[in-house]
Amino acid sequence: MEQGDDELPDLLATNLRGSFELLVLRYASQLHVFALRWIGNPTDAEDIVQVAFERAFITLDNYPVPIIRALKLRPWLYKVTLNVSRNYVSRSKLHTVSLESLEDGDLPEQDEDWHSQPELVVESSERRRELEALVATLAPSYRDAISLCYFGDLSYQETANVLNKSIGTIKFYVHRGIELLRKRQESQMNEVR
Amino acid sequence: MESRDNHHHPPIQASQETGSAEREGNTLAAPISAVILKRMRLGRPSLLSEMDEIQLLTELENTEWQVRVAVIQKLEGYGERAPIDRLMSSLKDEHEAVRAAAAHALGVLENPKAITPLVEALQDPIWLLRAAVVQALGMLGEQVPVEPLMLALQDEDESVRVVAVRVLATMGERVPIEPFLAALQDSAWQVREMALLALGTHGWDIPKTAFTLALQDEDESVRRAALFLQESYPERFAETASNLPVNVPEESTQTTFDAQIQTFPNAASQPEGRQERRGNDLLHLDQEQDLEHVAQLRNLQRYPRQGTLRVLRWVLLACWSIFIGYLLGIIWNLVPLTHADPAQLTTRVVIQTLSAPLTALPGINAPVWVRGVCMLLALLLFMGCFWATRDAWYEHNWTRRREASREETGGESRGYDHFTRAPVDSPRQVSNARLHSRRAVLVGLTAVLIAGNGIAWSLLLNGKRKPGSSRPGLGMVLYIFRRHTGNVRSVAWSPDGTRTASGSDDRTVQVWDVVNGSLSFTYSGHTSAVRTVAWSPDGSRIASAGKDGIVHVWEASTGQPVLTYRGHAGDLVAAVAWSPDGKRIVSASGGGSQVQVWDAINGSHYFTYTGHPAHGVLTVAWSPDGSRIASAGDDGNVRIWDASTGRDVFVNLFGYPNGFQRSDPVNMVAWSPDSTRIASGSDGKTVQVWDASNGKQVYTYRGHFNTPLGFVTTVSWSPDGTRIASGSYDRTVQVWDAVSGQHAYIYRGHTATVTTVAWSPEGAYIASGSDDRTVQVWGAG
Fold first, then answer.
1. Is A109 in contact with B131 (Cβ distance < 8 A)?
2. Partner-chain contact B162 A58, CB within 8 Å
3. Is the ipTM of this complex over 0.95?
4. DSSP class of residue A149?
């Protein structure tokens, strides 16, 4: 859990308009990377994150205060983003992932704010980018589970809640997905040699 | 009471053109959070703080949409002094952000004049706008008509439905419960969750069934919401909780909510007695209506099928293809059965063929309990298939009704792609297209499965029916040969069991290939009716004879004549038999009294047996050990004599009704494979089984006795000696136990007198010929 996560739900519950900006600042990048892994197109991923935040705003605006206070924001936002991504894919039928776009570095460039957003530093690392490119090639079930567990830093239970699967299924997906990733990485390395 | 910022704008999305500009200008350079904030108009600077009202109204015409939005937000704070007409006209602004800001401002100002334009704005193609309008209408309170909001509950966008359900829940008794019940089963978890929370926190009593379903919802957020209500309002929801199993993660049950939930906005502000009234309404619902609700809710919970049940249903539906394929396979097998002659597709044949697997069951070598379990499993599978079909049909109906309902209430299509900001086919159309595509794929797959299964079953069944393969069911018809134009008098199997030869009154002997059911060739050397046919033990030749009194020996493979035997001087030859070593032939004169033994190679006569003085000899049989010959005929006596010398071994003069007097004619004698017994069938309607060593009667089979035309014409011993088949004038072939004489099966395939019966060498089939001019080959079990 990130620092300040405990206070943010309270802030949102008392002053949604004023504190929603904090929510965006904190989670936009993570959600963008998550959406990018789904869509493969940075511009579309950006749109998805925007819509996800819009829907999150509307929902929070109508939630009872205690519900907002008890909300685990990160898994909840991932869930909302996942919904939007799925709808987007089913509408546009553009469920294609361009590895080149990922590898060519279409992720947001660092700017002067990057010090305040450490996750961007992580995203920019070459190793992580390669790994993400590999993850994007996995089947949707494995990809979602690994994305949420490893890149989204959600627990198995939280991932299970987001994906509406049992915790055992999630563990299986992650385990199997990692195995597949390992094999693909090895085969890639062999090709390079 | 928790203070809430109820007067803020919903986030506003960027316009198409501006969004593109922002992408080009900012996206690649700025962090994503900054881009999102900018596009959502969050964290914007105050541009207009110094302007007066007149300047602000002028700025409403500004070409920059951001400025127009800012002006509207500024005007919103003016309260009663705000220019309502200008704000209403902004509802038709070209930019959705301006329209949304205007909607929000009109809601905040609570001016009834704004209701009509706001309701019209519900038709906006942008979902965010519609959500903002619903929210604004909710702020206007009691003056707002309920119907547009109920239509918003059917909106294609889940966020609009979320806001609509929350707003409707605050409208009290003006809203019926049904839309909420539907919302509780919405396909989007956000709507289900909000419906639950809104109903629960605004004093509505949720029907137990609906609440139970929510507690068991597939989505964790919905389950949490239900738990929240239970903890917050234990007096209203506790009973449900204690009575029903709840599938909620452990983590959820540990969640405790703040005590302040009791003071959730609007909960306390409900008119006094509201909860009680709602509760009473539900309690006094007509029982039938209540049951209907419950059924509807259960259906909504059940469909669309998810997870294991969905997989199970598809598996069981696939099993149907196996059943249907099986039927097709069997039907396909009827074609060779009838030689493409539809006249042979009698009901009996079809029923027999369809029930072939059941009749084959007794032949399966497995304990009774194993067969019982298999039958039970098959029955369960069959019932499961019915369930799957019924379930799929219900879901299909449910989907159709739901779509029809949406069509009625959903209004015009709002096809608009949020991401590209371009009009597109409405989601429902896209969904239908996808549905049709999926349906086409499923139909195709099912057709392939059925066809594949049909072919597989056909091959399997066809293979099973071949001689030499596993034993077919008792009475299962393999072939019906209908090429004879006269009564069939005699049938014989080749020693290898692959062919049969049938002699007929039409003067021909037809040789059939039993493997594929085709006619190999027809021997037409006889000048009159053929009465008897016998295959040589080595299978190379066939001896046939008949009314012309000449015994023809010919090649079994080609029909080429080998020799003719004319020793009977023109008398009808009723029976011929080969010696087991294939070197000699015995032939009986049906018109005279002679039985002659002669050389099968050159036709030279060995001797003549004259034990049947003045009576026709109808049947003759060589014992399998080759030492003796049994003959019988019109005199009713069965005579056993030495095959080498012709001397009588003994004469069986008793057993038939007339005893030593004139007995009923014996039409057929047959040796048991071990040469120890003889079975003889007579016009006395019985089959006698004798001990071949001493002539003592073992038992009498009376299966044909009780029928008026029960004269037994033919008898055949199974190769293993355990069973006997007998044919009769009563048109039946009866199969019975050779040891005990107990009846086992009656074959009723013939429509006239059964004249000949022959057991195949391996014992799996019986060929029977009849005066109905057919030769029928069927399973012996």
1. no
2. yes
3. no
4. I
Q: Look at residue A105 in the predicted model and tell me its pLDDT.
A: 39
Chain B neighbors of A15, CB-CB under 8 A:
5
Domain boundaries, chain B: 1-144, 188-301, 307-465, 477-779
- And the tokens for A7? 């206070």
φ, ψ for residue B261, nearest 5 deg: -60, -25
Rounded CA-CA distance B182/B595 in Å is: 95
Is CATH 1.25.10.10 the right assignment for the domain spanning B1-144? yes
Q: Measured between alpha carbons, how far is B185 from B189 in angstroms, rounded to an integer?
A: 9
In Å, how far are B154, B397, B416 from B403, measured between CA atoms? 11, 10, 19
Rounded CA-CA distance B414/B411 in Å is: 9
Q: Name which of A59, A65, A167 is nearest B162 (Cβ-Cβ).
A: A59
Closest to A75 in 3D by CA, of A168, A175, A185, A156: A156
Residue B393 to residues B303, B317, B396, B397, B406: CA-CA distances in angstroms? Answer: 11, 11, 5, 6, 20
Q: How far is A42 from chain B (nearest CA, A)?
A: 9
The CA distance from B671 to B650, in Å, is 15
Top CATH class, A7-192: mainly alpha
Per-state percent for chain B, helix, strand, coil, to nearest 5: 40, 20, 40
Using the Cα atoms of residue B263, residue B267, residue B271 and residue B273 in order, give the sign of their dihedral. Answer: negative
Q: Considering only CB atoms, which chain B residues are within 8 Å of A24?
A: 33, 36-37, 40, 42
The per-residue pLDDT for range B641-654, each reduced to its tens digit, is 999 988 888 776 54
CA distance B688 to B705: 12
The predicted pLDDT at position B2 comes to 37
Class of residue B769 by CB neighbours under 10 A (exposed 0-12, middle 13-18, buried 19+): buried
**Cα B128 from chain centroid?**
47
B-chain CB neighbours of A157 within 8 Å are 249, 251
Q: What percent of chain B has pLDDT over 70?
A: 71
Give B209-256 pLDDT, tens digit per residue. Answer: 888 888 888 888 888 888 888 888 888 776 554 443 334 443 433 333
CB contact under 8 A, A53 and B36: yes
Q: Which of chain B's residues have a Cβ under 8 Å away from the Cβ of A83?
A: 188, 190
Helices (H) and strands (E) in chain A, counts: 11, 0
Q: Which amino acid is at B124?
A: D
Task: For residue range B562-584, list pLDDT tens digits in order.
Answer: 999 988 887 889 999 999 999 99
Mean pLDDT for the stretch of residues A139-143: 84
Between CA B12 and CA B8 the distance in angstroms is 12
Q: Model's pTM, two decimal places?
A: 0.44
Which residue shows structure tokens 């999102």?
B36
CB B165 within 8 A of CB B191: yes
The residue to which tokens 């001493």 are assigned: B694
DSSP conformation letters of B44-58: PPP--TT--HHHHHH
**A18 interaction partners in chain B (CB closer than 8 Å):** 5
What is the C-alpha to C-alpha distance for residues B612 and A97, in angstroms, rounded to an integer?
98
Amino acid at residue number B680? S
- List the single best residue of B32, B129, B216, B229 to mutate versus A (max A Cβ within 10 A): B32
Token code pair at residue A56: 């999150």
Whole-angstrom CA distances from A26 to A34, A148, A158, B360 are 14, 16, 18, 73
> Please, where are the H alpha helices in A42-139?
42-62, 65-70, 73-92, 99-103, 118-124, 126-136
Q: Give strand pairing partners of B734.
A: B726, B746
Under CATH, domain B477-779 is a member of which superfamily? YVTN repeat-like/Quinoprotein amine dehydrogenase (2.130.10.10)
